[in-house]
Design goal:
- Helices cover 12% and strands 39% of the residues.
- The protein is mainly beta.
- Strands 1, 2, 3, 4, 16 and 19 form a six-stranded mixed sheet that branches.
- The longest helix has 16 residues, at 253-268.
- The chain is globular and about 55 Å long.
Length: 269
């Protein structure tokens, strides 16, 4: 089975193109996310405010907001099935925890998914004072200081929720992003841009990728029978470059959106 590609304008001002994939076997959705165009130059993360953190790195620390691999493949993209799963069906919660580590004064990994009720294990490999502060809108916030003697903490999330921000109140450059699901059908890309979602029954689903910092950036409904290969491309349009630069400068999503609205009003006259 083959799928017909679509080109969609996105809420974040970016474009995603989903081109025809090749149907194979195995009830799996696979794909690659790439950045199409010239990527903006982003400043390295500045850790000068904490000499201990700065001392953990022998070279400049790349900005995590836009992570590209060979051929402009994109890391830190969370892809999940948002529609099409059987109503009322439940899936077992993994006994293995999802792990986030405070290592090198960075959250690792930067983007991740977890199931409702699955243990979220928080490590402090740095052995210095950290703080993990989740900022969900549906689940209760989790805000815990982790002094050097506290090497591990855990929590769980009771309700599904789309991507939300995690920050460190001690080191403001530390950021991570998490989404909570009722199902296991999600995947985060590494620098090779590849994602794999396995175990799906043949059917029609909405598969949604999200740039963590700019929230949801695409939605697509397509047939999944056995395996469907999907390639996602995010062009580096002028608007996209401006948004990325704004976020790198510390603008909030609300401020970026407000700027878009003002620009649209000027165009309309």
């Amino acid at each position: 089975m083959r799928a017909t590609g679509k080109r969609l304008w996105l809420a974040a001002g970016l474009v995603a193109a989903l081109w025809p994939g090749v149907a194979l076997a195995a009830s799996t959705v696979t794909g690659t996310v790439t950045f199409d165009g010239k990527a903006p130059a982003l400043k390295p993360i500045a850790m000068d405010a904490d000499p201990v953190c700065a001392g953990k790195h022998s070279a400049p620390v790349p900005n995590e907001m836009l992570v590209l691999g060979s051929g402009n493949t994109m890391g830190n993209i969370l892809v999940w099935v948002s529609k099409g799963l059987p109503a009322g069906k439940t899936w077992p919660v993994p006994k293995t925890p999802v792990v986030i580590d405070q290592n090198g004064c960075l959250y690792k990994p930067h983007v991740m998914g977890i199931m409702v009720g699955q243990t979220y294990r928080i490590l402090n490999s740095d052995g210095i004072l950290h703080n993990i502060h989740t900022l969900p809108k549906i689940n209760p916030a989790f805000n815990k200081g982790m002094p050097p003697t506290l090497k591990e903490a855990t929590t769980v999330f009771a309700k599904p929720e789309e991507v939300f921000h995690i920050k460190c109140d001690v080191h403001p450059w530390m950021s991570a992003y998490l989404a909570v699901f009722l199902h296991p059908f999600f995947s985060a890309t590494n620098t090779d841009g590849k994602f794999t979602i396995s175990g799906l029954d043949p059917g029609t689903y909405e598969v949604r990728p999200a740039r963590a910092e700019l929230e949801r950036v695409a939605a697509w409904i397509g047939p999944v029978a056995d395996e469907l290969g999907v390639a996602l491309t995010v062009p580096a349009t002028t608007a996209a470059e401006r948004q990325i630069a704004r976020f790198a400068e510390g603008w909030s999503l609300e401020e970026i959106y407000a700027e878009q609205v003002r620009a649209a009003e000027v165009v309309r006259g």
